[in-house]
Write a structure and sequence with these properties.
The chain is mainly β and 796 residues long. Helix content is 4%, strand content 34%. Strand 15 and strand 16 form a beta hairpin. The N terminus and C terminus are likely disordered.
């Protein structure tokens, strides 16, 4: 059967190539190929650890055997440095795939493991996606907390049944597993019996500040906890965005270091305004990983800098070992701190991985943002390697920038603008680097009160989620301040042009006409003069795209996380196309053939070049793919079946419940244009609109509107009514939601019964901020060969 299936797939692909070539003649439209990246290098098992490859290591812990264990996150492995100094893999194959419980850890695949801790049972515990897992002393892989869903749930019950979004873990002196969650703003604990509870944090209610000092930790706001540690006093310390706090033995919470919050406490360590990334303990004092370096406070609350930041790799993760050694995992290496620091594992930033050779022979880790330079070069941000690579028009690759990068852009003068999340720096072609928007320790005015004409480099901002540059060198950036985000415009000289338009978005791009596109719940467009409009035709068909780009002809190409991160669709004049590259299936295939027949895996960057070619960061395949003449890609044909993700609350995209308005995203759900409902007799909404019905456990839902990419309606009251309602009135099903089926004129699709659950991926990105729809919860339909190539055959 397998041979037959492979033959059929190969025949289909071969047929598609033939038909596509026959239709196009000499010039071949819509052909996909690999533009950069390839098969992984050898990771170096068996070599001295300092000669082996590491990719974004995020944690190093000393085991009970005295050896160092490394979460080699972007390589999807957990590794160990043996007593003889060589390195080996103890779990993970390099392929980011979830392995069910009960399998031997050796030889099992993992997905982005991070945050290692050793339990009192001798097991190695680590975070994997939305779970905490364990390699038992017998070498077996097991889940100890998390059901694979990002929802906040399960307190008082078995930890394995709880919804989690874990960030860091540590064990307390009583054997309890402490779990920090930046996403949920909570600290949770799994007791030795396996029961989970929340020990700190409540709903923020729109606030982005900590509060509650002096009261119970369970009633305090704990904003975005980054790290947790058990101090030398046995108390739990929490590193957040603005402070380091601790939970006292009676359960109350207090601030230990004020961070950026400017506490008015009388102790110096609570007024020093120190930006802290992590906390550790050496058994004698609390060690802080901060922007000043590795620091601690002495018995007089005086700040002691143990290792200044200038002597350390940037943006690393500090860990203190059982024997007191301090280790930093950063820049693809593990460094033993000392004078001087010593690299003990990994090749570090010095490993350029293919520089000076063809881009197709180079190694990429997690390719993301893409940009076209003024000379036709293609730039790609590799967030796994923490580099920006430049691919020249002749196909040769070099490294244009080394260091953490969350977003970047290139202007017409070939200046490189880079953000590591907190600010934007400008790097000129000769390598000169200077702050451009925001800078560490800035104390000037902040949006929206700044006067026009001030230097944007002096703005105190929290974060820069996204930015872009137009053809005149103006920079448009989303900057985050407490409680609000703003869009600002900065001219080529670094002076503020706009004081700041308030926005709710995490991504923006500038098109060839200089217009700024900001998708959120609607598709917002800001003209160069600052006038803001909503693209009514597109609406929210694309949801909140993981990546998008606007072509020279105005068409929008987007990867929609509500449908599939392995498909790229085109939006033209408000109409959504079937995927023009990739589809709902995940994998790597299709080079040399038509893009609609290709397989992709996690699209994290899109860019339409000036010549109309579409470049795709196929991140989990570690490649940049290119589609020639993307505007001529055919659709899959009229007989292709609908595909759909789980319904979401129409107001806030969270949970849905009986009687609530829902929004459902997908492909081929209805007609190309938007069709709205008209009331029928008795003032009732129709349950069939433009040939589409939505069934909840067999009960048809009243529909408000239908389009190809989105359907809105009301959840039937006759659906199961066992729901929970939170303090804000939002409801969700208590337990499995109903089975939801989409019926259209061309067939049916079933998102597998996960209605009422926020379906997110089990493998968050390296940054830990983005979480997308799990392919396992996407309704899929197998397409016959003639269905797949119907549109191509018609052209031939």
């Amino acid at each position: 059967m397998l041979i037959h299936m492979l033959f059929l797939r190969g025949f289909c692909l071969g047929l598609s190539v033939f038909l596509c070539l026959a239709a196009a003649g000499q010039e071949q439209p819509c052909i996909i190929d690999t533009f950069a990246g390839g098969d992984s290098y050898s990771v170096g098992d068996g070599l001295p650890a300092a000669e082996a490859e590491l990719l974004f290591p995020t944690e190093v812990r000393q085991g009970p055997d005295g050896l160092l264990y490394i979460a080699d996150t972007a390589y999807h492995r957990i590794r160990r440095i043996r007593a003889d100094g060589t390195i080996e893999t103890i779990a993970g194959t390099g392929v980011g795939t979830f392995t069910p419980d009960g399998a031997p850890a050796a030889g099992s695949a993992l997905v982005l493991p991070r945050s290692i801790a050793f339990g009192p049972d001798g097991g190695l515990y680590f975070v994997e996606g939305l779970r905490v897992r364990r390699i038992s002393s017998a070498g077996i892989l097991e889940t100890v907390a998390g059901n694979g869903r990002e929802e906040l749930s399960g307190d008082g019950g078995p930890a394995k049944d709880a919804g989690l979004a874990p960030t860091m873990i540590v064990f307390d002196p009583d054997g309890g597993l402490i779990i920090a969650s930046q996403t949920h703003n909570r600290i949770r604990r799994v007791d030795p019996s396996g029961t989970i509870s929340t020990i700190a944090g409540i709903e923020l209610g729109g606030s982005k500040y900590d509060d509650g000092d002096g009261g119970p930790a369970t009633e305090a706001r704990v904003y975005s906890p980054r790290d947790v540690a058990i101090g030398p006093d046995g108390l739990l310390y929490i590193a957040g965005v603005y402070s380091v706090r601790r939970i006292l033995s009676d359960g109350t919470i207090e601030t230990y270091v004020s961070g950026l919050s400017g506490s008015s406490s009388s102790t110096q360590r609570q007024t020093i305004r120190l930006s802290v990334r992590g906390v550790e303990s050496d058994g004698q004092s609390l060690i802080l990983d901060a922007t000043a370096g590795v620091v601690r406070f002495d018995e007089n609350d005086e700040l002691v800098v143990l290792y200044p930041a200038a002597d350390l790799p940037s943006d690393g993760v500090l860990s203190v070992q059982l024997d007191g050694r301090m280790v930093l995992a950063a820049d693809n290496e593990v460094v033993l701190l000392g004078n001087p620091p010593v690299r003990v594992a990994g090749l570090g930033a010095a490993s350029k991985r293919g520089d000076g050779g063809p881009a197709t022979d180079a190694f990429l880790s997690v390719p993301a943002r893409l940009e076209e330079g003024p000379d036709g070069s293609i730039y790609v941000a590799d967030v796994g390697l923490r580099q920006i690579r430049r691919i020249a028009p002749d196909g040769m690759i070099t490294t244009a920038y080394s260091g953490p990068v969350t977003d970047f852009a290139v202007d017409k003068e070939n200046n490189l603008f880079v953000s590591r999340g907190l600010s934007i720096d400008k790097i000129t072609p000769d390598g000169t680097r200077s702050p451009f928007v925001g800078s560490l320790g800035a104390s000037g005015c902040a949006p929206p009160v700044c006067a026009e004409g001030v230097s944007a480099a002096g703005m105190p901002i929290l974060r820069v989620p996204s930015f872009d540059v137009d053809g005149d060198g103006n920079v448009y950036a989303i900057v985050e301040r407490p409680n609000s985000s703003y869009l600002i415009k900065v001219d080529a000289q670094g002076l503020l042009v706009w004081r700041g338009l308030q926005v709710e978005a995490q991504i923006l791009r500038v098109d060839f006409e200089g217009r700024i596109h900001i998708p959120y719940r609607t598709w917002n467009i800001v003209e160069p003069n600052g006038q803001q409009t909503v693209y009514e035709g597109l609406g929210s068909y694309a949801g909140l795209p993981a990546a998008f780009s606007v072509a020279p002809d105005g068409a929008i190409y987007a990867a929609n996380p509500y449908v599939s991160l392995s498909a790229v669709s085109r939006y033209t004049e408000g109409l959504i196309s079937d995927p023009i590259a990739g589809g709902l299936d995940v994998g790597f295939a299709g080079d040399g053939g038509p893009a609609p027949a290709a397989l992709l895996d996690s699209v994290r960057g899109l860019m339409v070049a000036s010549d109309g070619a579409l470049y795709i960061s196929d991140s989990r395949n570690r490649r940049v793919r290119r589609v020639t003449r993307a505007g001529e890609c055919p659709s899959l044909g009229p007989r292709a079946l609908p595909a759909v993700s789980g319904p979401r609350n129409g107001a806030n995209y969270s949970f849905v419940a009986p009687g609530s308005v829902f929004t459902l995203f997908g492909l081929r759900l209805g007609p190309a244009g938007l069709q709205t409902a008209t009331l029928q007799s008795g003032n009732r909404l129709p349950t069939r609109l433009a040939g589409t019905r939505i069934l909840f456990d067999g009960v048809a839902a009243p529909l408000l509107y239908v389009s190809a990419g989105q359907v809105g309606g009301v959840v039937p009251f006759s659906s199961p009514v066992n729901v929970d309602v939170d303090e804000y009135g939002a409801g969700r099903w208590n337990g499995p939601g109903p089975r939801v089926v989409v019926e259209t004129d061309v067939g049916r699709s079933d998102p597998r019964g996960h209605a009422g659950q926020r379906a997110h991926s089990e493998d968050p990105t390296v940054s830990g901020r983005e979480r997308y729809l799990d392919h396992g919860r996407t309704g899929r339909s197998e397409l016959r060969c003639e269905d797949l190539h119907r549109g191509i055959a018609a052209e031939a």
